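User: I've been trying to design a sequence by hand for this structure and keep getting stuck. Would you show me what you'd pick, starting by listing the structure so we're on the same page?

Assistant: Good idea, let's start from the same input. This is the structure you sent:
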């Protein structure tokens, strides 16, 4: 009975090891692609918005909070996204993507990605406001307010 239980545990330990390897590889891919830097750039903006709702909280708290998340954000994101990426990409796919991002043009893209994301978000906000205004105009024209 104990032997059967031991052998039954082997696949789950092996699967967990594969998940850990996948998660680590995904974390590296997110790092070299600039995805983590993009999220890191958003953290201070998020904290700034949160500060507004709690103006009496000391700056030291906010700095500590920001440091905590900067230190573990990459591993948290990789853990969060591992099951999603596993549905679509093999670990070999991730390794090939990493190879690309370690090439000169890949490095250039990875370094530019955070800035492009910031600019793209600004454009996305403007486009969203334009769509909302257009929708409101069309609703008003049809008598719906």
């Amino acid at each position: 009975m104990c032997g059967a239980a031991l052998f039954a545990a082997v696949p789950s330990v092996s699967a967990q090891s594969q998940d850990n390897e996948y998660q680590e590889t995904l974390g590296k891919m997110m790092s070299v692609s600039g995805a983590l830097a993009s999220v890191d750039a958003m953290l201070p903006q998020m904290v700034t918005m949160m500060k507004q709702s709690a103006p009496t909280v000391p700056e030291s708290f906010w700095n500590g909070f920001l440091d905590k998340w900067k230190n573990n954000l990459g591993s948290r994101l990789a853990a969060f996204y591992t099951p999603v990426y596993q549905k679509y990409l093999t670990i070999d796919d991730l390794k090939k993507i990493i190879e690309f991002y370690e090439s000169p043009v890949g490095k250039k893209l990875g370094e530019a990605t955070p800035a492009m994301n910031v600019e793209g978000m600004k454009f996305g906000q403007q486009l969203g406001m334009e769509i909302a205004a257009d929708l409101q105009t069309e609703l008003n024209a049809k008598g719906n307010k």
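That's my pick for every position. To get oriented when you compare it with your attempt: The two ends are 71 Å apart (CA to CA). Residues 2-112 form one domain.
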